[in-house]
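Input (structure):
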């Protein structure tokens, strides 16, 4: 059964977003200050995606406030941090992507894209291919995850960078192929200066300004595709061994299987090369065919069967996959994933919703979509919103 269509589906998504906003702390701009910081970036992304999909901009003031408060230097950032430049490159990636969405939603307001460009340069500085400030050719290239120890080539940091670089290219390249001048005002001059400085110090001299983001995205994808993280079943393991740079055979987390889909869609939009969509199909189909990841047609995170469980980070992963799957679906003529997305949304609504409230507008969801409500958290709720937005868009 498909998710009920508008206006009912709009109401379901609205209730879920309102439930997500109950976690919002108006003093810090975080969704639950005790939750992992990256999940507030993801919650921001979920709310921005909802506003973009529906045209309902009522949460825009909170989105602005979150960005303004969280862009400052925070205690765990390395020296010279701030502007979302975190100790792990994936954390920076989540926030930077939300900033590109904020830029699009606000019609190009400053300084959102300028900060995202600064974040791209920061992540790129941890590329280990020898042609940036990231150091020598460790594992032949790739973005490292841990900034302090300069270690661990993992899937999510590299996938997020792929998506960010390709997205920036597609935001900035005009019809003549030139990068547009960033929008600026008196409040963003310093950011623009930082962007210019970071770009000049981290870009290969052979890379022209008009193609740097696409060149980097293609370089990232070539490295990632050949890294060994994609296994023989077209499932992506978590990362590479430090000693040998071989696949570490760690679990296939659903978000690792999802973010890459959106990255490949952006590469297709940038290049017109349909082979990127073919690869994305194979990666998406591998999840759908997996009895472990998609039992009965409903997505399941591997941590459900692990002793340590899914809290706190892994509760958010499934919605990320579904949101990126929708981005792939809408560019394919045969729309192969529409039914899968709608089925997952319907099952979540029918089974995992919080039925303890007498209100028919209960919008809280648990973390296992095919099981009854198991408590609320920012990760679970952001995941639910992302799934419902995906169902609205397909």
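Output (sequence):
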């Amino acid at each position: 059964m498909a998710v009920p269509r508008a206006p009912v589906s709009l109401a379901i998504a609205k209730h879920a977003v309102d439930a997500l906003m109950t976690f919002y702390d108006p003093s810090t701009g975080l969704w639950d200050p005790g939750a992992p910081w990256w999940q507030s970036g993801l919650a921001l992304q979920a709310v921005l995606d909802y506003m973009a999909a529906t045209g309902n901009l009522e949460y825009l003031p909170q989105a602005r406030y979150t960005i303004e408060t969280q862009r400052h230097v925070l205690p765990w950032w390395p020296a010279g941090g701030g502007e979302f430049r975190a100790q792990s490159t994936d954390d920076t990636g989540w926030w930077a992507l939300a900033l590109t969405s904020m830029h699009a939603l606000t019609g190009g307001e400053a300084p959102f894209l300028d900060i995202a460009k600064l974040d791209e340069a920061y992540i790129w500085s941890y590329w280990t291919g020898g042609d940036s400030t990231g150091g020598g050719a460790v594992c032949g290239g790739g973005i490292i995850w841990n900034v302090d120890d300069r270690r661990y080539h993992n899937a999510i940091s590299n996938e997020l960078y792929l998506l960010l670089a390709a997205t920036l290219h597609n935001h900035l390249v005009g019809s003549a192929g030139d990068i547009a001048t960033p929008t600026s005002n008196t409040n963003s001059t310093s950011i623009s200066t930082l962007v210019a400085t970071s770009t000049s110090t981290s870009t290969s001299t052979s890379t022209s300004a008009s193609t740097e983001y696409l060149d980097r995205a293609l370089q990232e994808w070539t490295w990632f595709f050949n890294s060994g993280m994609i296994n023989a079943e077209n499932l992506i393991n978590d990362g590479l061994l430090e000693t040998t740079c071989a696949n570490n055979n760690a679990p296939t987390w659903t978000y690792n299987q999802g973010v890459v889909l959106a990255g490949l869609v952006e590469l297709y939009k940038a290049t017109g090369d349909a082979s990127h969509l073919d690869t994305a199909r194979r990666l998406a189909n591998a999840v759908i065919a997996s009895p472990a990841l998609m039992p009965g047609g409903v997505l399941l995170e591997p941590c459900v069967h692990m002793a340590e469980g899914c809290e706190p980070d892994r509760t958010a992963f499934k919605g990320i996959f579904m949101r990126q799957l929708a981005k792939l679906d809408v560019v394919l003529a045969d729309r192969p994933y529409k039914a899968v997305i709608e089925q997952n949304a319907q099952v979540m609504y029918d089974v995992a919703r919080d039925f303890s409230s007498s209100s028919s507008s209960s919008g809280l969801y648990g973390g296992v979509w095919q099981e009854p409500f198991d408590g609320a958290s920012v990760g679970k709720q952001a995941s639910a919103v992302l799934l419902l937005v995906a169902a609205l868009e397909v």
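Notes: The chain has two domains: 1-70+289-394, 88-250. The first helix runs from residue 8 to 21.
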